[in-house]
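Annex B, item 7. Sequence and structure tokens for protein A, then protein B.
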Amino acid sequence: MSILGAVLSIATGVMILGFGLLLFYAWLPVFYGLVGLDLGLLLGRSLTGDIGFFAIVLGIAGAAILAGLAYVLEPYRRILIGISAGMLIGVSLASALGLDAPSGGFLGTALAIVFGVMGASVVPRYFDQFIIVSSAFAGAALVMAGANALFPGVGIFDRSQGAIVPTFLTLALAVAGIIWQMSNIAKWIQNRPRLENT
């Protein structure tokens, strides 16, 4: 990794470490808008055979609609993620315990439904905390990787050798990121719609 790559890794890691939740919500409408733009352009091309004025208008309209819907659909997307994750855990558990074959799949399906309902109720409640924790650890790992590339001879940054100091330094950075993001969570998501308000 070059010096520029190492510095970019550290800078990106610090941003993700300290502002992961804010970045998630700030970029969510952009991602939805890009999908809407793509859908509009594809629809326009399929209707007219070319990406001309009509396709571009449909693309812009699709981008505006999906970017606007990003906040409206957010609570429902969380529920669907919870259902999917819960059902995956239920099916995996049924398969690991051998419950899916003897009953013709009934017990596996029942376990998947139970875990799906549990996931639908748990994930929306703790989604922001999950984003905070995962972004803090990902950012800390990026900072350490960049620092190790920038200073390859310094053992304090080299986590690949299995030393305990770099591991604790990564954990300390992650904990600092979690504390920082948790202290600012109210400012960052105050305008996010909640399911009970819709």
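Protein B:
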Amino acid sequence: MQRAAFPELQGQPRSSRHRKPERPDRILIGLKVATGIAAAGLLTVVVLLISAGVEAPAANRSPTVPKIVPGPGDDAPAATTTPTQLQPPELQSDTQEIAGQPAPTTTSRSPRPTRTQKPPRQPDFEFAVIGERCAKPGTFSITKESEPVMCFRRSPTDEPRWLPVF
């Protein structure tokens, strides 16, 4: 009877954290439902795999393979056969002029005229040279070695020059 020693605890309700919640936790219910669905799916897969193993799968059956009859190979003497001439089918048109036309004769082409060799074009773009003067401070360019450079003026009295960016 220890509670008798503390009369203030006898009639007071318990704190809210020890009470049963009025509404069940939705996340907990959702996890239970998802676990049940996953278990049912896994059970279905196992049952399907077991039932499919009873019958012989169709993939293991080999198709009928025709018997290969040995014939003349590369080292066998070649059989002499006369080529048969195929007749073209009759045209289903009003005129049959196309079927009776002779094969076109080959014509020799005239030789191509030779091209005049043009000198190689110089690129419109001039590569910057580090240390040389440039026209407009703040512009960017590249050198022949593909190094980025910037037109920069070191002091207000200096002329702008190409300087490496890195």
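Comment on protein B: The beta strands are 140-142, 148-152, 161-164.
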